[in-house]
Amino acid sequence: MNVSELTLLVLRIGFLLMLWMFIFGIVYALRSDLFGQRVRKMKVDAASVPAAAFPASPVPAAVPVAAAAAAPVAPLTAPAARASPAAQDIPGAQAGMATSQNTTRLVITSGPKAGTEFPLGTETITIGRSGDSSLVIRDDYTSTHHARLMLWHDEWMLQDLDSTNGTFLAGSRVTVPTKIPLNATVKIGATSFELRR
Fold first, then answer.
1. What residue ranges are annotated as transmembrane (predicted)?
2. Which domains does the chain have, with CATH numbers?
3. Least C-beta-crowded within 10 Å: which of 21, 55, 63, 111?
């Protein structure tokens, strides 16, 4: 075998490897889009946030709500509230933010379900395209498991679940669990909503 044949063989093998890498990349992207990505545990800087701020126990699945926009919206019922950290222990804590005592409903202000209201209980509300989400949003910019709202120490917190297009609170992208002020706009995909009294 001369040099030109060896070069041709190496080029063929390299081309086949690149082709297979491209195919695996497409399959991975399709799998992530259809089934969603696994929710990863957040890495927290122990120096800035006490360990009590993020309980180690997994968050229970929320009760599913009807996915169709025309279907009546049932109140979100809640399991027993979990122990909560002190307000100063949670990232994004600020004075004057909404508490569960004066926040009673989630109102969708724009998007396919604009005008829809969800009564708030005390359980976690999951948001995404998946049918097992509490609030199902079906658009091209929403991930299968996009975000969740959770009640910590009588404060509603917004957490992005590693979504592709991000979760925005008052125009800023959410990267850590953040308190939601009363009447602040939360944007997920093409849908915006607010927490109100």
1. 6-30
2. 105-196 (2.60.200.20)
3. 21
